[in-house]
Design brief:
This protein is α/β, with parallel strands linked by helices. Helix content is about 55%, strand content about 10%. Strands 6, 7, 8, 9, 10 and 11 form a 6-stranded mixed sheet that branches. The radius of gyration is 34 Å and the shape is flat. The two termini are about 40 Å apart. The mean pLDDT is about 85. GO terms for molecular function: DNA-binding transcription factor activity; sequence-specific DNA binding.
Length: about 550
């Protein structure tokens, strides 16, 4: 904190400097000026929290200085120290926000009281300013989420528009009545393999990047806004309310921006131009259908317009026809047999001239149904097995760098998934007779306690070396990493309760040191506990 003393008499400045224990009240630097003009230059450069000023000074007097401070440094607090008991001086001090008016000769106690009062007022104001800045930053972070929700609601409930039309009009300058709109959809289901490899585990970051690129161009042109669709986790919707005749050119520019930033391009589905807001839902459906009906084996362009006359038929080829062969291969747990079974299925798929997203979704659904049946048949007593009974991830279509469906890549992914599934099933079939899983169960139940390798070795009558080696072999991770992961998974659930403090959660999952808990949490999840809580609460 800085203080400025302004007086044309040096002995007065020296006296004020000596009378106050500046460091004790948090002042790091005391500055001096011999007139109001010199003071303004120092204020512009140093931004002092408190200014102590005389009234009668050459060049620029105290009244002029107070008026200048009120305009150009309103955050600074002022105290007047004058040798004149003049009503006009007092009136001007009050008018321009002075905290106090002291008379010379200076009374040390009065000076100390006035300075402390001014410092306390400045600290209170600074706290308010910091909170305001934090709120502004937070609002700028939340604002895109707010508009995502608003526009997502408009797709399915156009009447909702009339409750938010003033806010939309102010933010985006959309005409309140008689406007038109066109929906364009970008989906991550069929992203380039280059982009998928880079962002497969960071889709939120990818959405953030895509949305920023879209809106930089759309808002520059004044034609629309891009938002993440809340009802479909893999969709970005571009809402156009102007520039329909330039739409394809603008989308091409956006795709060029994607390529420069991400080294990949995306497909767009285009709906028809409709009345806003009542026709937005229909335009959205058309754009979605345009994407779902395109032939993924062809690459003509990235823009796909809706055509009501084109409705591709689904193939008569079903995953069901090859299920038995693949099931027996998985039960054998032999990688070569699994590779052969998948290859025979893909060989038939390669004979097709057209494959749409709808077709892939049908096969994906059939595969997941049979996968559930296989697990239930082979492991009837197991109801909650991580990696096995978890819900399958949402379908991501494997595309090559040219934007076409890569059946070879799909074959590799399906083969590796089934080999992994077979290995998990074998492991869990042996689970009941394996002491390592008893140790894992013990950790799952006692994660909130202080658990050491020696404690576990004593309890299970095994050597520490054996437990360390065997646990890594069976669980594919170190014992300490497993304990940390279980604790952080429990902490993630507790963070969904906004009434629990981070310190409480830290202790509840076995960490007595909150800073160490936050460090471990960020190492495992890539974000801090507070950031995780904010993100998950926003989702809900």
């Amino acid at each position: 904190m800085k203080v400025l003393i302004v007086d044309d008499e040096k002995h007065v400045r020296d006296a004020i400097s000596l009378l106050i224990p500046w460091q004790e009240i948090g002042v790091d630097l005391v500055l001096e000026a011999e007139d109001g003009e010199a003071a303004t230059r120092i204020i512009e450069r140093e931004h002092p929290a408190l200014i102590l000023t005389d009234m009668l000074m050459p060049i620029k007097n105290g009244v002029q200085l107070l008026e200048w401070i009120r305009t150009y440094s309103p955050g600074s607090k002022t105290v007047v120290i004058s040798g004149h008991d003049d009503f006009d001086f007092v009136r001007h001090t009050v008018k321009y926000g002075g905290m106090d008016y002291l008379l010379k000769p200076i009374d040390p106690d009065q000076l100390a009281e006035a300075v402390q009062k001014a410092i306390d007022a400045w600290k209170a104001d600074e706290q308010d300013r910091m909170q305001s800045r934090e709120q502004t930053i937070e609002m700028n972070q939340i604002k895109p989420v707010y508009w995502d929700k608003i526009f997502s609601n408009l797709i399915h409930e156009p009447r909702y528009y009339y409750s938010v039309q003033d806010a939309i009009s102010r933010e985006f300058f959309i005409p309140k009545e008689g406007g038109r709109c066109q929906a364009v959809i970008l989906t991550l289901d069929t992203m380039d393999s280059t982009v998928m490899d880079k962002f497969s585990s960071h889709l939120d970051l990818l959405y953030f990047t895509l949305t920023n690129i879209c809106n930089e161009i759309l808002r520059r042109e004044g034609v629309g806004y891009a938002f993440r669709h809340w009802s479909s986790e893999n969709e970005l919707v571009l809402l156009f309310w102007n520039g329909f005749e330039r739409l394809k050119m603008i989308l091409t520019e956006i795709n060029d921006g994607f390529y420069m930033t991400l080294n990949g391009r995306f497909d767009f589905g285009l709906g028809a131009v409709e009345a806003f807001p009542n026709g937005l839902g229909n335009s959205y459906k058309e754009a979605r259908q345009a994407l779902r009906a395109r032939n993924l084996l062809e690459r003509h362009n990235r823009l796909h317009s809706y055509n009501s006359q084109e409705r591709p038929k689904l193939s008569a080829l079903h995953f069901t026809d090859y299920e038995e062969n693949i099931r027996f291969a998985v039960r054998s747990s032999q990688p070569e047999r699994i590779k052969e079974a998948v290859a025979s299925w893909i060989a038939e798929v390669k004979k097709l001239e057209s494959i749409t997203v709808e077709q892939l979704e049908l096969w994906w659904h059939e595969y997941n149904v049979f996968r559930s049946h296989w697990i239930k048949d082979l492991l009837p007593e197991q109801t909650d097995i991580p990696g096995l009974t978890d819900e399958p991830a949402k379908m991501i279509v494997p595309m090559d760098k040219q934007g076409k469906l890569s059946l070879d890549l799909w074959q590799d992914e399906l083969t590796q998934s089934l080999i992994h599934l077979a290995a998990l099933m074998v492991r869990y079939q042996q689970k009941d007779n394996n002491v390592i899983y008893d140790i894992a169960k013990y950790i799952d139940s006692h994660y909130h306690e202080e658990i050491t390798l020696q404690d576990i070795a004593t309890k299970f009558y095994l050597s520490r070396e054996y437990i360390s080696r065997k646990f890594k072999q069976e669980m594919s991770e170190n014992l300490s990493d497993y304990i940390g992961r279980i604790r952080i998974e429990k902490a993630q659930l507790l963070l969904l309760n906004p009434n629990l403090k981070i310190t409480q959660i830290s202790e509840m999952v076995g960490y007595n040191d909150e800073k160490y808990f936050s460090k471990v949490f960020k190492k495992i999840t890539q974000i801090s506990p507070n950031e995780y809580r904010k993100r998950e609460l926003l989702k809900s």
